[in-house]
Amino acid sequence: MAIGEKLFRRIYGEAARIGRKGSFREREQFGLISRPNYLYGMLRAADCARYFGKTRVTAVEFGVASGAGLLNMVELASLIHAETGIEFRIVGFDTGKGLPQIQGYKDHPEIWNPGDFAMEQREQLLGKLGDRAEIIWGDIGDTVGPFTQSIDATAPLGFVSIDVDIYSATKSALKCLTGPTESYVPALSMYFDDINFFFANEWAGELAAIAEFNAENALRKIGQDRSLPGHRPIKAESWYSAMYVCHFLDHPARQTTATRPRLSISAHAEFMKSRFLF
Question: Cis link prior to 229 (omega < 30° from 0)?
Answer without folding.
Answer: yes
